[in-house]
């Protein structure tokens, strides 16, 4: 129990605990760091500049120089007492070598800083920031006290040099501490801006501070005051700032993280240019401050001494204004710091050229103020950039890079006074200012090379900027009208898109700065036919058949029959004519309706409801190098496949073995050029044209990067891709984990929420630029470098590729809006997560198998391990507002719920396969479809609408229609299959009728006479007519409950057969409705692989039981057929 504190009436122990708790809060720690560092920088710069008005006079007073009397003559005078007095008069004293000795004294601090900084940066990188700062401040205290009491040039020189030793630790650790604590770019810029304001305040207030106190109290007082403030600041570091746990960086294995060596940072051309700019920016002050006092004494002899000391003080305010303006400009235009820095340098140069022509103090203040404003522009623009460069191109340890910044300042202030004194002594003050002007204006164009730092470009080995790897993206985008597209609803970034002979051509229009686009030739010698339009009679006849199977009762079915008659009587022909008209003027009438209704309008999440996964055979990685090698080969394989597509060298697909009926290759063109963007109500597909320069996206530890894969039309080599992947992993692991916002979670939830998130995000130009980079990526690769203990069998591998087991594992290391995501787990689990709206499974399987074969072939070869072209990956940066964070949290919560709810069972049925089914004289696909109908009837007592995609790629831009296996014939058969009163002959007869109907329906669909696309078009057109009041209301046939049940698919199936030489792969996806099943099956010669899914939360479904029921149904059907054969 402590004592009571009056006024606040609180116990002292409580107050102490409250203060301790407040001090330890992260936000308070940031503020305290900024306060302590700002004071340290203020002190250091005051110590540098406080001697300007003091030391020149003090050294003369203590007779530190040899004196030469110039122009004096003896004047003799006789006193009254007869004494003769001889007096020297009429001349002046010349203090020999004053400028040079003053220059060396001024420069000694900075000179020692230059030599100590490499060591201080090395030490700071290894032991953290706090202790070096305390050391630096204590050394500064000691040296300043010595300076206060020193009475000879030698002692002052020693003390001044010792200040440089302390500054090398205090300045570097202070700037590095700010960069470390303030990790977001805008926050870091503001913090460094405040620190720079204190630097300028120290530089500019020190001369009047020293001048006034020196004239009042003598030399020791100003220095003793500053020394004690140094000591207090050191105690503040020791007592208040809590060393951050990550101050000494460690890797995931607990090893100390090594910062990039300083010499290697110096080799980075961006950092080298920044360093040069910082030197040039401070040359003006370093040259003027030690020389302007004497120049004013000669040109403005009537100026009072106190005013000479105050000449720099007014310039403090423009400097602070420059810092403020630059911080605000960087918030609005974060990609243009190089412009602000170049403008600042030019302003400095021109202002210095005007200084010698000023003939009064008031006039002189104007160019000096402009000089300081320019310095603020340069420093505030480039200091945050140094931290960003380390974050993105090296290791996020900041000691060495800010030691480089300190060296840059020190070089200016070390050699500035020496050079300036020599120049003034030799050719005068005017020549000195012309020299400053030439240096600043001459270096300004060099800063142009920094333009690519925030626009994600690199410098090549010769230090020349590479061209942009993707076309720049306009701020606004206008969706293409239907007549400009084939009905896919695609959008292209800033391009006019027109279909010519089945291939897309892209014109730049007003956008001239874009990368040259590769114009692909047509796949075909003559255009493919357009899909036919089924008759109304055929479509609604089939519709009533399928509806009768799922109808709850006869009354419901009869009502639907009446609704069909009403539509055919009152509007059917009108809307059929519209479909026919559309079929005449467009390549494919289906895609104007199907894609939108099937994929882009549904608002459910993409993962588990829409996105399937293709699971590759599991790999066994020898070590992490082997892991990255596999990833690099797979990327190179996918890009090699894309190159074949882009240049029309890929094998064409045909419907038949005789290669007489070509299939549309349009999906291949879109496969690696499309991105699904969330929009409220209806998503859009954005397409990026094939370019000379291309990149892919990489997710690693929930962080997004892009890496180059093609430059100037040439694919990068395996080693060049692998180098970038290595850098991605290093950068991802070295970033502070608490600062990582799992931005990809926005793509994992409902589509309207995703749209709201990105609408808000793209208000910020930084987010807009990063998002454009995502959209223009060829595909996404997910490096899941953290192990997942959930993976036990093939079933868990499928779950891992589909959803990564949610936010607790690798689920937020996905970007679900990408068409293709190559997922590679550290345990060897790998495969594709696919956004399905762009292409069908068989197209994706062909691409994937090409990449797998490519990797297998390349892994057996000896590879060049050293990259010829070493390019750094580009991290994508985001600013997240509270509104965005709220949406993001909701998306992640919903994603985790769905991921936890998925049940997936991968089943290998090895009793027989395709060969035996054929021997039973049944279509293998029809056999499995009917087996699933039997299994569902056995488990649930009724049939449901079933979806199986049927390819219609024999037509232009053809996608799929739906083979419905729940037919009346199938229902008749499954009802008797387990009826012991029925003979096997009757059962077989009904099965054969069902199989025949299945074959008829299949043929109708693949030849363009399926009904689902047609019904979708008619329903959409009549709904639009009702909205426009052209008809009273939507027709009941498209709104009654039986329509809803018939168009709802509790059983979603898909056959994707893979090559027999790739063993252990399969396709899987979640059920499309919560009370349904998903079943992707792969029919091999001697086995059938099924991946059955369901929702755990649904008490009516069970994936494992359904899978077993399908297996049993297949055995029973085979036995039925063989039994009747033997009897006959």
Q: Give the C-alpha Rg.
A: 39 Å
Indicate the low-confidence ranges by residue numbers. 243-257, 455-519
What is the tally of beta strands?
26
What is the correct CATH architecture of the largest domain? Up-down Bundle
CATH fold-level topology of the largest domain = Growth Hormone, Chain: A
Oligomer: single chain
Q: Tally the structural domains.
A: 3
So what's the CATH class of the largest domain?
A: Mainly Alpha
Q: Could you state the CATH homologous superfamily of the largest domain?
A: MFS general substrate transporter like domains
Termini distance?
Answer: 102 Å
| Number of helical segments with 4 or more residues | 36
Strand content: 5-15%
Arithmetic mean pLDDT: 83
**Helix amount, in percent?**
40-55%
Structural class: alpha+beta
Biggest sheet overview: 9 strands, mixed
Shape: elongated
Structure description:
The chain is of the alpha+beta class. It folds into three domains: 17-70 and 91-242 and 262-452, MFS general substrate transporter like domains (Growth Hormone, Chain: A, Up-down Bundle), CATH 1.20.1250; 536-600 and 905-1127, Chloramphenicol acetyltransferase-like domain (Chloramphenicol Acetyltransferase); 671-720 and 736-903, Choline/Carnitine o-acyltransferase, domain 2 (Chloramphenicol Acetyltransferase). 53% of the residues lie in helices and 11% in strands. It has 36 helices and 26 strands. Strands 10, 13, 14, 15, 16, 17, 18, 19 and 24 form a nine-stranded mixed sheet that branches. Helix 27 (794-803) links the parallel strand 16 and strand 17 (820-825). Helix 6 packs across helix 16 (399-427), helix 10 crosses helix 16 (399-427) and helix 13 (316-332) packs parallel to helix 15. The radius of gyration is 39 Å and the shape is elongated. The model is unreliable at 243-257 and 455-519 (pLDDT under 50).
């Amino acid at each position: 129990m402590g004592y009571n504190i009056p006024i606040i009436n609180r116990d002292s122990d409580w107050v102490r605990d409250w203060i301790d708790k407040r001090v330890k809060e992260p936000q308070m720690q940031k503020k305290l760091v900024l306060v302590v560092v700002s004071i340290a920088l203020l002190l250091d710069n005051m110590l540098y500049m406080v001697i300007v008005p003091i030391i020149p006079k003090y050294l003369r007073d203590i007779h530190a120089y040899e004196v030469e009397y110039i122009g004096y003559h003896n004047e003799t005078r006789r006193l009254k007492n007869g004494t003769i007095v001889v007096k020297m008069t009429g001349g002046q004293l010349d203090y020999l070598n004053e400028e040079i000795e003053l220059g060396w004294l001024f420069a000694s601090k900075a000179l020692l800083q230059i030599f100590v900084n490499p060591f201080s940066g090395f030490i700071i990188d290894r032991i953290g920031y706090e202790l070096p700062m305390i050391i630096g401040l204590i050394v500064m205290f000691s040296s300043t006290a010595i300076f206060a009491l020193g009475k000879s040039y030698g002692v002052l020189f020693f003390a001044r040099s010792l200040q440089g030793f302390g500054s090398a630790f205090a300045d570097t650790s202070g700037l590095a501490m700010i960069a470390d604590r303030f990790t977001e770019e805008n926050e870091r810029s503001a913090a460094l801006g405040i620190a720079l304001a204190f630097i300028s305040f120290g530089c500019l207030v020190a001369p009047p501070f020293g001048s006034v106190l020196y004239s009042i109290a003598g030399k020791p007082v100003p220095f003793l005051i500053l020394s004690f403030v140094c000591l207090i600041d050191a105690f503040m570091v020791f007592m208040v700032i809590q060393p951050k746990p990550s101050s000494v960086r460690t890797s995931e294995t607990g090893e100390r993280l090594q910062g990039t060596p300083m010499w290697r940072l110096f080799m980075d051309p961006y950092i080298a240019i920044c360093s040069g700019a910082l030197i040039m920016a401070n040359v003006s002050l370093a040259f003027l401050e030690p020389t302007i006092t004497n120049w004013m004494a000669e040109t403005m002899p009537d100026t009072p001494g106190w005013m000479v000391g105050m000449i720099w003080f007014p310039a403090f305010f423009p400097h602070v204004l420059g810092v403020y303006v630059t911080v605000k400009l960087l918030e609005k235009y974060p990609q243009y710091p190089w412009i602000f820095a170049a403008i600042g340098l030019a302003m400095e140069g021109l202002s210095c050229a005007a200084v010698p022509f000023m003939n009064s103090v008031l006039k002189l203040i104007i160019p000096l103020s402009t000089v300081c404003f320019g310095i603020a522009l340069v420093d505030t623009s480039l200091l945050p950039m140094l931290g960003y460069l380390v974050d993105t191109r090296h290791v996020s340890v900041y000691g060495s890079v800010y030691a480089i910044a300190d060296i840059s300042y020190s070089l200016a202030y070390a050699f500035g006074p020496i050079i300036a004194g020599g120049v003034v002594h030799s050719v005068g003050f005017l020549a000195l200012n012309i020299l400053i002007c030439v240096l600043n204006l001459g270096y300004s164009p060099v800063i142009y090379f920094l333009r690519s730092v925030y626009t994600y470009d690199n410098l090549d080995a010769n230090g020349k900027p590479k061209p942009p790897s993707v076309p720049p993206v306009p701020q606004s985008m206008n969706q293409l009208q239907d007549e400009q597209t084939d009905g896919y609803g695609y959008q292209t970034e800033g391009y006019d898109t027109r279909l010519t002979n089945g291939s897309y051509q892209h014109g730049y229009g007003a956008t001239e700065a874009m990368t040259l686009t590769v114009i692909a030739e047509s796949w075909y010698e003559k255009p493919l036919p357009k899909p036919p339009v089924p008759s109304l009679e055929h479509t609604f006849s089939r519709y009533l058949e399928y509806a009768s199977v799922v109808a709850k009762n006869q009354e419901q079915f009869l009502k639907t029959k009446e609704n069909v008659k009403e539509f055919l009587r009152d509007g059917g022909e009108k809307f059929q004519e519209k479909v026919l008209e559309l079929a005449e003027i467009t390549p494919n009438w289906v895609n104007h309706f199907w894609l939108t209704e099937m994929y882009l309008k549904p608002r459910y999440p993409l993962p588990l409801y829409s996105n399937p996964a293709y699971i590759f055979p599991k790999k066994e990685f020898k070590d992490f190098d082997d892991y990255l090698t596999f990833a690099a080969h797979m990327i190179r394989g996918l890009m090699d496949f894309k190159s074949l597509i882009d240049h029309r060298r890929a094998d064409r697909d045909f419907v038949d073995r005789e290669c007489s009926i070509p299939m549309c290759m349009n999906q291949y063109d879109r496969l690696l050029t499309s991105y699904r963007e969330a929009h409220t109500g209806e998503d859009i597909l954005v397409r990026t044209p094939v370019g000379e320069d291309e990149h892919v996206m990489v997710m690693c530890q929930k962080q997004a990067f892009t890496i180059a894969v093609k430059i100037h039309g040439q694919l990068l080599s395996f080693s060049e891709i692998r180098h970038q992947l290595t850098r991605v992993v290093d950068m991802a692991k070295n970033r502070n984990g608490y600062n990582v916002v799992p931005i990809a979670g926005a793509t994992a939830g409902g589509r309207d929420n995703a749209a709201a998130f990105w609408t808000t995000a793209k208000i910020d130009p930084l987010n807009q630029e990063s998002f454009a980079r995502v959209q223009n990526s060829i595909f996404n690769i997910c490096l899941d470098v953290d192990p997942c203990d959930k993976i036990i069998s093939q079933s868990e591998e499928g779950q891992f590729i589909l959803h990564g087991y949610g936010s607790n594992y690798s689920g937020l290391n996905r970007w679900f809006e990408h068409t293709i995501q190559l997922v590679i787990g550290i345990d060897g689990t790998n495969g594709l997560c696919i956004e399905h709206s762009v292409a069908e499974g068989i197209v994706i399987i062909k691409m994937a198998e090409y990449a797998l074969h490519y990797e297998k072939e390349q892994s057996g070869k000896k590879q060049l391990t050293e990259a010829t072209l070493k390019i750094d990956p580009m991290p994508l940066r985001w600013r997240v507002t509270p509104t965005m964070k709220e949406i993001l949290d909701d998306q992640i919560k919903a994603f985790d719920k769905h991921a936890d709810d998925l049940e997936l069972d991968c089943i290998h049925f090895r009793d027989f396969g395709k060969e035996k089914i054929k021997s039973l004289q049944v279509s293998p696909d029809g056999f499995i479809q009917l087996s699933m109908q039997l299994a569902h009837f056995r488990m649930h007592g009724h049939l449901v609408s079933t979806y199986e995609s049927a390819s219609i790629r024999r037509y232009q831009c053809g996608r799929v229609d739906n083979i419905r296996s729940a037919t009346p014939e199938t229902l008749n058969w499954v009802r008797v299959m387990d009826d012991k009163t029925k003979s096997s002959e009757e059962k077989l007869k009904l099965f054969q009728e069902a199989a025949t109907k299945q074959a008829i329906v299949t043929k109708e669909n693949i030849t363009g006479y399926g009904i689902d696309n047609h019904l979708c078009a008619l329903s959409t057109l009549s709904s639009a007519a009702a909205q426009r009041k052209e008809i009273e209301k939507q027709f009941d046939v498209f709104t009654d409950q039986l329509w809803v049940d018939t168009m709802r698919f509790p059983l979603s199936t898909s056959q994707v057969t893979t090559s027999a030489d790739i063993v252990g792969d399969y396709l899987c996806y979640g059920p499309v409705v919560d009370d349904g099943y998903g079943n992707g099956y792969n029919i091999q010669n001697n086995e059938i692989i099924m991946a059955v899914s369901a929702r755990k939360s649904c008490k009516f479904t069970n994936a494992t039981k359904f899978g077993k029921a399908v297996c049993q149904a297949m055995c029973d059907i085979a036995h039925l057929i063989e039994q009747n054969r033997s009897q006959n």
